[in-house]
User: Which sequence fits this backbone?
Protein backbone atom coordinates (compact mmCIF):
# COMPACT_ATOMS: atom_id res chain seq x y z
CA UNK A 1 0.00 0.00 0.00
CA UNK A 2 1.24 3.46 -0.88
CA UNK A 3 2.53 5.63 1.96
CA UNK A 4 0.14 8.22 3.35
CA UNK A 5 0.40 11.21 5.67
CA UNK A 6 -2.16 13.00 7.85
CA UNK A 7 -2.95 16.64 7.18
CA UNK A 8 -4.61 18.61 9.99
CA UNK A 9 -6.20 21.47 8.12
CA UNK A 10 -7.75 24.52 9.76
CA UNK A 11 -11.35 25.03 8.67
CA UNK A 12 -13.57 28.08 9.11
CA UNK A 13 -16.84 28.86 7.45
CA UNK A 14 -18.09 32.40 8.08
CA UNK A 15 -21.69 31.23 7.60
CA UNK A 16 -21.51 28.38 10.13
CA UNK A 17 -18.63 28.71 12.55
CA UNK A 18 -17.79 31.02 15.40
CA UNK A 19 -14.14 29.97 15.34
CA UNK A 20 -11.80 27.77 13.29
CA UNK A 21 -11.43 24.04 14.01
CA UNK A 22 -9.18 21.32 12.62
CA UNK A 23 -10.18 18.62 10.18
CA UNK A 24 -7.90 15.68 9.49
CA UNK A 25 -7.35 14.20 6.03
CA UNK A 26 -5.30 11.20 4.94
CA UNK A 27 -3.29 12.02 1.82
CA UNK A 28 -0.98 9.81 -0.29
CA UNK A 29 2.68 10.81 -0.21
CA UNK A 30 4.55 11.08 -3.49
CA UNK A 31 8.16 12.16 -3.62
CA UNK A 32 7.46 15.14 -5.88
CA UNK A 33 4.33 16.28 -4.04
CA UNK A 34 4.26 19.59 -2.20
CA UNK A 35 1.70 20.85 0.35
CA UNK A 36 -0.28 22.43 -2.49
CA UNK A 37 -0.54 19.06 -4.30
CA UNK A 38 -1.90 17.53 -1.11
CA UNK A 39 -4.48 20.32 -0.71
CA UNK A 40 -5.53 19.94 -4.34
CA UNK A 41 -5.83 16.18 -3.82
CA UNK A 42 -8.19 16.83 -0.89
CA UNK A 43 -10.18 19.36 -2.92
CA UNK A 44 -10.50 17.00 -5.93
CA UNK A 45 -10.97 13.62 -4.26
CA UNK A 46 -12.00 14.01 -0.63
CA UNK A 47 -13.64 17.29 0.28
CA UNK A 48 -14.60 19.86 -2.35
CA UNK A 49 -15.51 22.42 0.29
CA UNK A 50 -11.90 23.06 1.36
CA UNK A 51 -10.97 26.61 0.36
CA UNK A 52 -7.44 27.89 -0.24
CA UNK A 53 -5.66 30.32 -2.56
CA UNK A 54 -3.19 29.18 -5.17
CA UNK A 55 -2.25 29.98 -8.74
CA UNK A 56 1.12 29.45 -10.38
CA UNK A 57 2.52 26.39 -8.50
CA UNK A 58 6.06 27.71 -8.97
CA UNK A 59 6.87 30.36 -6.37
CA UNK A 60 6.03 33.33 -8.59
CA UNK A 61 2.50 34.43 -7.73
CA UNK A 62 2.79 34.42 -3.94
CA UNK A 63 -0.78 33.14 -3.45
CA UNK A 64 -0.25 29.89 -1.53
CA UNK A 65 1.22 31.08 1.76
CA UNK A 66 0.03 28.98 4.72
CA UNK A 67 1.26 28.18 8.21
CA UNK A 68 2.78 24.72 7.93
CA UNK A 69 3.51 23.27 11.38
CA UNK A 70 3.43 26.83 12.72
CA UNK A 71 5.93 28.17 10.15
CA UNK A 72 4.92 30.48 7.29
CA UNK A 73 5.63 28.56 4.07
CA UNK A 74 4.72 28.63 0.39
CA UNK A 75 2.48 25.62 -0.27
CA UNK A 76 4.08 25.12 -3.69
CA UNK A 77 7.65 25.02 -2.35
CA UNK A 78 7.24 22.79 0.69
CA UNK A 79 7.57 19.05 0.11
CA UNK A 80 5.43 16.52 1.97
CA UNK A 81 8.35 14.12 2.40
CA UNK A 82 10.20 16.47 4.74
CA UNK A 83 7.36 16.11 7.27
CA UNK A 84 7.18 12.31 7.34
CA UNK A 85 5.76 10.50 9.25
CA UNK A 86 3.45 13.48 9.96
CA UNK A 87 0.93 14.73 10.78
CA UNK A 88 1.25 18.14 9.12
CA UNK A 89 -0.74 21.02 10.56
CA UNK A 90 -1.87 23.59 8.00
CA UNK A 91 -3.38 26.90 9.07
CA UNK A 92 -4.04 30.26 7.45
CA UNK A 93 -1.26 32.86 7.73
CA UNK A 94 -1.20 34.43 11.18
CA UNK A 95 -1.70 38.17 11.76
CA UNK A 96 -4.49 38.35 9.15
CA UNK A 97 -8.27 38.04 9.52
CA UNK A 98 -9.53 34.70 8.19
CA UNK A 99 -12.09 34.86 5.39
CA UNK A 100 -12.62 31.11 5.01
CA UNK A 101 -10.53 27.98 5.74
CA UNK A 102 -7.00 28.92 4.60
CA UNK A 103 -7.94 32.19 2.88
CA UNK A 104 -6.95 35.39 4.66
CA UNK A 105 -8.09 38.97 4.14
CA UNK A 106 -5.28 41.12 2.68
CA UNK A 107 -6.99 44.44 1.93
CA UNK A 108 -5.18 46.11 4.86
CA UNK A 109 -1.85 45.05 3.36
CA UNK A 110 -2.81 46.42 -0.07
CA UNK A 111 -3.66 49.78 1.54
CA UNK A 112 -0.27 49.82 3.28
CA UNK A 113 1.47 48.91 0.03
CA UNK A 114 -0.10 51.90 -1.71
CA UNK A 115 1.17 54.21 1.05
CA UNK A 116 4.84 53.47 0.28
CA UNK A 117 4.38 54.50 -3.38
CA UNK A 118 5.97 51.39 -4.89
CA UNK A 119 6.52 52.85 -8.33
CA UNK A 120 9.14 55.03 -10.02
CA UNK A 121 8.66 58.70 -9.14
CA UNK A 122 10.27 60.94 -11.69
CA UNK A 123 9.99 64.72 -11.93
CA UNK A 124 11.01 65.35 -15.52
CA UNK A 125 7.72 64.17 -16.99
CA UNK A 126 6.83 61.21 -19.17
CA UNK A 127 8.25 60.59 -22.58
CA UNK A 128 11.76 61.65 -21.63
CA UNK A 129 13.05 58.47 -23.19
CA UNK A 130 14.60 55.43 -21.64
CA UNK A 131 16.39 55.61 -18.32
CA UNK A 132 19.73 53.90 -18.57
CA UNK A 133 21.04 51.88 -15.69
CA UNK A 134 24.36 50.13 -15.17
CA UNK A 135 24.56 46.56 -13.76
CA UNK A 136 26.06 48.04 -10.58
CA UNK A 137 23.07 50.39 -10.18
CA UNK A 138 20.73 47.43 -10.73
CA UNK A 139 22.60 45.45 -8.10
CA UNK A 140 21.84 48.19 -5.55
CA UNK A 141 18.14 47.20 -5.39
CA UNK A 142 17.80 43.89 -7.27
CA UNK A 143 17.56 41.71 -4.16
CA UNK A 144 14.69 43.77 -2.72
CA UNK A 145 12.81 43.74 -6.04
CA UNK A 146 12.33 39.95 -5.86
CA UNK A 147 9.32 40.27 -3.51
CA UNK A 148 6.22 38.35 -4.65
CA UNK A 149 3.92 39.74 -1.92
CA UNK A 150 3.32 36.28 -0.50
CA UNK A 151 2.98 37.84 2.98
CA UNK A 152 4.95 35.13 4.77
CA UNK A 153 6.97 37.97 6.34
CA UNK A 154 3.82 39.52 7.82
CA UNK A 155 2.89 36.17 9.34
CA UNK A 156 6.38 35.86 10.86
CA UNK A 157 6.55 39.44 12.16
CA UNK A 158 5.11 39.73 15.70
CA UNK A 159 4.95 43.53 15.37
CA UNK A 160 2.58 43.19 12.39
CA UNK A 161 0.25 41.20 14.62
CA UNK A 162 0.55 43.38 17.71
CA UNK A 163 0.42 46.73 15.92
CA UNK A 164 -2.01 46.56 12.99
CA UNK A 165 -1.04 50.01 11.67
CA UNK A 166 2.63 49.03 11.27
CA UNK A 167 3.38 49.19 7.52
CA UNK A 168 5.22 45.88 7.73
CA UNK A 169 8.22 44.13 6.19
CA UNK A 170 7.31 43.59 2.52
CA UNK A 171 5.94 47.11 1.93
CA UNK A 172 8.93 48.75 3.66
CA UNK A 173 11.37 46.57 1.70
CA UNK A 174 9.63 47.64 -1.51
CA UNK A 175 9.88 51.31 -0.51
CA UNK A 176 13.59 50.77 0.03
CA UNK A 177 13.84 49.03 -3.35
CA UNK A 178 12.49 52.15 -5.14
CA UNK A 179 14.64 54.50 -3.03
CA UNK A 180 17.73 52.61 -4.16
CA UNK A 181 16.70 52.67 -7.82
CA UNK A 182 18.86 55.17 -9.74
CA UNK A 183 15.82 56.11 -11.89
CA UNK A 184 13.71 57.11 -8.89
CA UNK A 185 13.50 60.54 -7.27
CA UNK A 186 10.79 59.83 -4.70
CA UNK A 187 12.84 58.98 -1.61
CA UNK A 188 12.04 62.29 0.17
CA UNK A 189 8.33 61.77 -0.52
CA UNK A 190 8.50 58.23 0.87
CA UNK A 191 10.56 59.31 3.86
CA UNK A 192 7.83 61.78 4.82
CA UNK A 193 5.34 58.88 4.90
CA UNK A 194 7.58 56.22 6.43
CA UNK A 195 9.72 58.06 8.99
CA UNK A 196 7.09 57.43 11.65
CA UNK A 197 6.47 54.87 14.40
CA UNK A 198 4.09 52.99 12.07
CA UNK A 199 6.74 53.10 9.34
CA UNK A 200 10.42 52.20 9.61
CA UNK A 201 10.65 53.01 13.34
CA UNK A 202 7.93 50.49 14.15
CA UNK A 203 10.33 47.68 13.26
CA UNK A 204 12.16 46.27 16.28
CA UNK A 205 14.37 43.97 14.20
CA UNK A 206 13.07 40.59 15.23
CA UNK A 207 14.54 39.36 11.94
CA UNK A 208 12.06 36.53 11.33
CA UNK A 209 10.77 38.19 8.13
CA UNK A 210 14.16 37.67 6.51
CA UNK A 211 14.41 34.07 7.69
CA UNK A 212 11.03 33.02 6.24
CA UNK A 213 11.27 34.97 2.95
CA UNK A 214 11.18 32.43 0.10
CA UNK A 215 12.76 34.92 -2.34
CA UNK A 216 15.66 36.05 -0.08
CA UNK A 217 14.49 39.67 -0.21
CA UNK A 218 15.90 40.36 3.30
CA UNK A 219 13.17 42.81 4.45
CA UNK A 220 14.81 43.13 7.91
CA UNK A 221 18.06 44.28 6.26
CA UNK A 222 16.18 46.68 3.98
CA UNK A 223 14.38 48.26 6.95
CA UNK A 224 17.60 48.68 8.99
CA UNK A 225 19.23 50.35 5.95
CA UNK A 226 16.17 52.55 5.62
CA UNK A 227 16.45 53.48 9.33
CA UNK A 228 20.08 54.45 8.85
CA UNK A 229 19.11 56.62 5.85
CA UNK A 230 16.27 58.13 7.95
CA UNK A 231 18.62 58.92 10.83
CA UNK A 232 21.18 60.54 8.50
CA UNK A 233 18.35 62.49 6.86
CA UNK A 234 17.15 63.69 10.28
CA UNK A 235 20.66 64.81 11.30
CA UNK A 236 21.10 66.64 7.98
CA UNK A 237 17.79 68.46 8.45
CA UNK A 238 18.83 69.46 11.96
CA UNK A 239 22.29 70.68 10.93
CA UNK A 240 21.43 72.21 7.56
CA UNK A 241 17.76 73.24 7.58
CA UNK A 242 18.31 75.86 4.88
CA UNK A 243 20.10 73.45 2.56
CA UNK A 244 17.19 71.01 2.81
CA UNK A 245 14.68 73.74 1.99
CA UNK A 246 16.63 74.76 -1.08
CA UNK A 247 16.76 71.17 -2.28
CA UNK A 248 12.96 70.92 -2.03
CA UNK A 249 12.51 74.03 -4.13
CA UNK B 1 2.25 30.70 16.12
CA UNK B 2 -1.11 29.09 16.43
CA UNK B 3 -3.45 31.62 17.87
CA UNK B 4 -6.54 29.54 17.55
CA UNK B 5 -4.95 26.14 18.16
CA UNK B 6 -6.19 25.82 21.69
CA UNK B 7 -9.74 26.59 20.75
CA UNK B 8 -9.87 24.00 17.96
CA UNK B 9 -11.48 20.60 18.27
CA UNK B 10 -9.25 17.49 18.51
CA UNK B 11 -7.52 16.30 15.35
CA UNK B 12 -9.54 13.18 14.68
CA UNK B 13 -12.91 14.78 15.10
CA UNK B 14 -14.76 15.15 11.85
CA UNK B 15 -16.45 18.48 11.27
CA UNK B 16 -17.81 19.38 14.67
CA UNK B 17 -17.82 23.13 14.46
CA UNK B 18 -19.48 25.28 17.00
CA UNK B 19 -22.41 26.75 15.11
CA UNK B 20 -23.37 30.27 15.89
CA UNK B 21 -26.95 30.81 16.96
CA UNK B 22 -27.75 33.33 14.26
CA UNK B 23 -25.40 33.35 11.29
CA UNK B 24 -24.81 36.93 10.23
CA UNK B 25 -23.70 36.43 6.68
CA UNK B 26 -23.87 39.15 4.12
CA UNK B 27 -22.91 38.56 0.54
CA UNK B 28 -20.09 41.05 0.26
CA UNK B 29 -18.77 41.14 3.80
CA UNK B 30 -18.56 37.66 5.25
CA UNK B 31 -17.66 37.55 8.91
CA UNK B 32 -13.92 37.46 9.17
CA UNK B 33 -12.41 35.60 12.06
CA UNK B 34 -9.79 37.71 13.83
CA UNK B 35 -7.51 35.46 15.88
CA UNK B 36 -6.54 36.92 19.26
CA UNK B 37 -2.86 37.20 20.13
CA UNK B 38 -1.96 35.63 23.45
CA UNK B 39 0.04 37.66 25.99
CA UNK B 40 2.56 34.82 25.89
CA UNK B 41 2.97 34.83 22.08
CA UNK B 42 6.74 35.25 22.47
CA UNK B 43 7.09 31.88 24.24
CA UNK B 44 6.02 30.06 21.08
CA UNK B 45 9.31 30.33 19.22
CA UNK B 46 12.95 30.51 20.31
CA UNK B 47 13.52 33.41 17.88
CA UNK B 48 10.80 35.41 19.65
CA UNK B 49 12.20 34.56 23.11
CA UNK B 50 15.64 35.77 21.95
CA UNK B 51 14.03 38.97 20.69
CA UNK B 52 12.30 39.64 24.02
CA UNK B 53 15.54 38.92 25.93
CA UNK B 54 17.38 41.35 23.66
CA UNK B 55 14.74 44.04 24.27
CA UNK B 56 14.93 43.31 28.00
CA UNK B 57 18.72 43.79 27.90
CA UNK B 58 18.14 47.56 27.65
CA UNK B 59 17.09 47.44 31.33
CA UNK B 60 20.50 45.95 32.18
CA UNK B 61 22.17 48.73 30.17
CA UNK B 62 20.20 51.38 32.11
CA UNK B 63 21.07 49.64 35.40
CA UNK B 64 24.79 49.63 34.54
CA UNK B 65 24.74 53.30 33.56
CA UNK B 66 23.03 54.14 36.87
CA UNK B 67 25.67 52.11 38.78
CA UNK B 68 28.55 53.93 37.06
CA UNK B 69 26.94 57.29 37.80
CA UNK B 70 26.50 56.24 41.44
CA UNK B 71 30.14 55.20 41.54
CA UNK B 72 31.32 58.58 40.19
CA UNK B 73 28.97 60.38 42.60
CA UNK B 74 30.34 58.49 45.63
CA UNK B 75 33.92 59.14 44.43
CA UNK B 76 33.21 62.87 44.42
CA UNK B 77 31.73 62.70 47.94
CA UNK B 78 34.96 61.36 49.40
CA UNK B 79 36.65 58.17 50.67
CA UNK B 80 33.99 57.37 53.22
CA UNK B 81 31.17 57.48 50.69
CA UNK B 82 33.24 55.44 48.24
CA UNK B 83 34.02 52.71 50.77
CA UNK B 84 30.27 52.55 51.52
CA UNK B 85 29.63 52.12 47.79
CA UNK B 86 32.25 49.34 47.60
CA UNK B 87 30.64 47.62 50.59
CA UNK B 88 27.21 47.65 48.94
CA UNK B 89 28.70 46.41 45.68
CA UNK B 90 30.44 43.51 47.46
CA UNK B 91 27.24 42.11 48.88
CA UNK B 92 26.13 38.75 47.52
CA UNK B 93 22.85 39.89 46.03
CA UNK B 94 24.58 42.81 44.27
CA UNK B 95 27.21 40.48 42.75
CA UNK B 96 24.46 38.07 41.60
CA UNK B 97 22.49 40.95 40.10
CA UNK B 98 25.57 42.26 38.29
CA UNK B 99 26.45 38.82 36.90
CA UNK B 100 22.95 38.71 35.35
CA UNK B 101 23.32 42.31 34.13
CA UNK B 102 26.70 41.43 32.60
CA UNK B 103 25.16 38.49 30.70
CA UNK B 104 22.47 40.82 29.34
CA UNK B 105 25.12 43.41 28.41
CA UNK B 106 27.03 40.77 26.43
CA UNK B 107 23.81 39.84 24.62
CA UNK B 108 23.09 43.51 23.96
CA UNK B 109 26.56 44.19 22.54
CA UNK B 110 26.73 41.06 20.39
CA UNK B 111 23.29 41.62 18.86
CA UNK B 112 24.21 45.26 18.19
CA UNK B 113 27.45 44.35 16.43
CA UNK B 114 25.62 41.71 14.39
CA UNK B 115 23.03 44.30 13.35
CA UNK B 116 25.61 46.67 11.88
CA UNK B 117 26.27 44.68 8.65
CA UNK B 118 22.50 44.51 8.04
CA UNK B 119 22.12 48.29 8.24
CA UNK B 120 25.33 49.21 6.45
CA UNK B 121 25.82 48.36 2.81
CA UNK B 122 29.43 49.06 1.90
CA UNK B 123 30.41 48.36 -1.69
CA UNK B 124 33.98 48.02 -2.76
CA UNK B 125 34.64 47.53 -6.46
CA UNK B 126 30.93 47.03 -7.11
CA UNK B 127 30.66 44.17 -4.60
CA UNK B 128 29.05 44.34 -1.17
CA UNK B 129 31.51 43.80 1.68
CA UNK B 130 30.81 40.57 3.58
CA UNK B 131 29.17 40.93 7.01
CA UNK B 132 32.28 39.68 8.83
CA UNK B 133 34.33 42.59 7.49
CA UNK B 134 31.87 45.12 8.96
CA UNK B 135 31.20 43.50 12.34
CA UNK B 136 34.76 42.07 12.66
CA UNK B 137 36.53 45.40 13.33
CA UNK B 138 33.87 46.27 15.94
CA UNK B 139 34.46 43.01 17.80
CA UNK B 140 38.21 43.61 17.54
CA UNK B 141 37.89 47.15 18.95
CA UNK B 142 35.65 45.78 21.73
CA UNK B 143 38.21 43.12 22.69
CA UNK B 144 41.17 45.54 22.53
CA UNK B 145 39.43 48.22 24.64
CA UNK B 146 38.24 45.61 27.16
CA UNK B 147 41.80 44.22 27.39
CA UNK B 148 43.21 47.72 28.03
CA UNK B 149 40.61 48.36 30.76
CA UNK B 150 41.36 44.96 32.32
CA UNK B 151 45.14 45.69 32.21
CA UNK B 152 44.60 49.04 33.98
CA UNK B 153 42.40 47.43 36.64
CA UNK B 154 44.90 44.60 37.28
CA UNK B 155 47.96 46.90 37.35
CA UNK B 156 46.28 49.26 39.85
CA UNK B 157 44.78 46.42 41.90
Assistant:
Amino acid sequence: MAQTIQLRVSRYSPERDTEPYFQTYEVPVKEEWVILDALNYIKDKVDGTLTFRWSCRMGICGSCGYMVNNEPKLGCATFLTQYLPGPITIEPLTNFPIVRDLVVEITEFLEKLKKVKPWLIHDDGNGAGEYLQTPDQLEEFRQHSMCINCLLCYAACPISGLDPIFIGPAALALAHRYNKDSRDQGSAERMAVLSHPEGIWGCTFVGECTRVCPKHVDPAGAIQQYKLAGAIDGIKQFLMPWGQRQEKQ
Amino acid sequence: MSSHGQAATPAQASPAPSHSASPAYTEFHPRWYRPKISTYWWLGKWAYVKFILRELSSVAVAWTVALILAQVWSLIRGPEAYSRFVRVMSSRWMIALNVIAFAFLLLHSITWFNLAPKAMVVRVGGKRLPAALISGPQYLAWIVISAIVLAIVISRG
Notes: Confidence is low (pLDDT under 50) at residues 1-21 of chain B. Chain B touches chain A at residues 1-5, 7-20, 23, 25, 30-35, 37, 41-42, 44-45, 47-48, 51, 55, 115, 118-121, 123, 126 (CB under 8 Å). The longest strand of chain B covers residues 123-124. DSSP finds four helices and two strands in chain B.
